[in-house]
C-alpha cells in the first residue's frame, strides 16, 4: 500500500501526512505501553508521521495527574530508537491545572517538563492550548521565540483561538519580528462547521496557516455509531452527550449523506467524514484517535479515499450550517 502524500504545515517547514494521531487516548482508554506501541507502530508503518498530545493529557482520568500521554509516547520513542526521525511530535501548553496559562515563566517550565517526559531534545510543534487574555500576546510570543532560539521548539501553533485574537497574535509577530503561529487547531467536522468557516477559515487561508482540526468525527457520531436514542448506552455518559448534541434532523441528514457516499465509494462513514475534511482546501490534516490497531487502520484508509465533486456537494448540502 502506497504512503499518503505529505502536506506543508503553514510556513513552518514541517511536512505532515493528511491525518494526525490524537494521543489524548493515551493514559485514558489506552493505558498499557504495549497497546500504545501497537498503535503508534501501525500509524508510522502506514506512512503517517505527526503525533499530537498535550501536557494535560490525560489529567481528567481518576488517579491521573497529567503528563501520562507524553510519558507513554516517550517510552515508545525510547523503545523504538530510530523512530524519532520518522515522527513529528506536537504538544501543547496552557490548559493544564498544574501549569496553567501562557506566562513566560510557565511556558519555560512547561516545555522543559514536556521534553523530559517525551525524552526528546526538540518539540516539532509547540502549541498554545488555549488563549490566555491575561498575558500580553507579545510576552507569550517572546517566550516561545526564546524556545525556538534555544532549539527546544521548531515551530509554534495555536489551539482554540478566536479569529480576532489569532489575527492580533499574527500582527504582533510581524511588528515585533517574533516567530508566528504557523498552525491552528480548531474544532471542525462535518457537523460543527459554522464556528470555523465563518471567520477562522478566511483568516488561515489569507495568512497561509496550517490547520489540524480536532473532534474530526464529532465524538464518534460521524462514524454512524449513534443512530437512535438507544445507542446512547453504547458509551455511557459520553454516548448520552453525543446523542443529545448531534442526533437531530440535521444530524440524521448528515448520516444519510455519509451512508450514501460510503456505499458508492465502498468505504465506511468515518472514512468519508474524514475524507471530506482532508479535501477541504484550508485543512492540512484532521486529528484522529483509535484504541486498537484494527480500528486505526480502518480510519487511516480515509487518506486514500478520493471524493468526487458530487460526493462533496452532497455532504456540503446535507451539513450546511
From TrEMBL:
List each copy of the NADP-dependent oxidoreductase domain by range. Answer: 18-318
Q: Is Oxidoreductase included in the keywords of this UniProt record?
A: yes
Q: Name one GO molecular function term.
A: oxidoreductase activity
* Membrane-spanning ranges: none
Pfam families according to UniProt:
Aldo_ket_red
InterPro entries, alphabetically? AKR_Detox_Biosynth, NAD(P)_OxRdtase_dom_sf, NADP_OxRdtase_dom
Q: Which GO terms describe its cellular component?
A: cytosol
Keyword set for this entry?
A: Oxidoreductase
Name listed for the protein in its UniProt record: Aldo/keto reductase
